[in-house]
């Protein structure tokens, strides 16, 4: 069956699904495969739960006309998404970067949705499966689509661009993330810059923070660049910060000066698309971070900055610098290992330990095997090899009446600390 024929059937469906636990009536089910599962085996279950069609790639499961046999389910999902994107021709904004992608995406959506009917990537579904699923949510009523693109190796952003075909693009920053897959910092820069390359080849628009000289260099000489950042000012208002642009002031609900550039991007994109200043203010002021990203939580007698969704050396330093400037009598950090750093893991973990030795905070607790292998003579530093070790000693850490930063890579799941305090 051709992609055009599959697309005709897709248009008769209500939505798509890749998980039999979330089947809805009249959806199209894609039987994806993974290292430990084969979606073809669940196709009949999807039909019983209400799916109208199942895309499969193993002949034995295609037993009637409701099963659509293809060479590869994942490729079909991706091709169908591009077909849908082309048919609707909805303006697509793509964004990537080492840090702040999801927060920036949410801020852009909060601003643009003040004026437009928007669709944005849900959570961080930003890979070769998540990007197609986002595109397939577009409808004829969608006025702007906002697509987050993640990557941990080169050529991945390039590939995602061929699926989404973005009209506009933004890179939040270049940082020390996924060094193992990218092959070092230079690999990160090259890999993320694939978005710039695609946009320039297609004569599309780049949004770029003109205060970031590295991004300016990577974008190069191109005549469709919208620069932002220099005309927006920041005022620290612990635990948050305020922003002034034009004659308007924004009282954000975000902690961390590292979020300043994320807000600047949302302001710039909103302004470009004609969102009135007062609506931009409203969109940003009503945005409250969630999902373990720069969340401010009060629990018992603790004020907590929960930033435990992920971590890399760049974001870890930024979070610690933010902790240091906060106005609180006691400041404590619980920091977990940073993953996917490859051969630079030892060096980068030691660099964080060395940094906190001179930091104006009361106590730093490191958790994880990488940090456990580092060295420090600072009295304020403690090491625990595993989370269970931390759990057994948490009563000794004197966390009362403190501002507590919790940060680590996703695999550390340090949001579990909330159950201990």
Automatic annotation (TrEMBL):
Report the pathway entry. Cell wall biogenesis; peptidoglycan biosynthesis
Ranges where the Mur ligase N-terminal catalytic domain occurs: 16-80
Known InterPro entries for this protein? Mur-like_cat_sf, Mur_ligase_C, Mur_ligase_C_dom_sf, Mur_ligase_cen, Mur_ligase_N, MurCDEF_CellWall_CoF430Synth, MurE/MurF_N, UDP-N-AcMur_synth
Task: Indicate which residues the UniProt annotation says bind ATP.
Answer: 97-103
Q: Where is the Mur ligase central domain?
A: 96-269
Q: What EC class does the entry list?
A: ligase
In alphabetical order, the GO MF annotations are:
ATP binding; UDP-N-acetylmuramoyl-tripeptide-D-alanyl-D-alanine ligase activity; UDP-N-acetylmuramoylalanyl-D-glutamyl-2,6-diaminopimelate-D-alanyl-D-alanine ligase activity
Put simply, this protein is called UDP-N-acetylmuramoyl-tripeptide--D-alanyl-D-alanine ligase
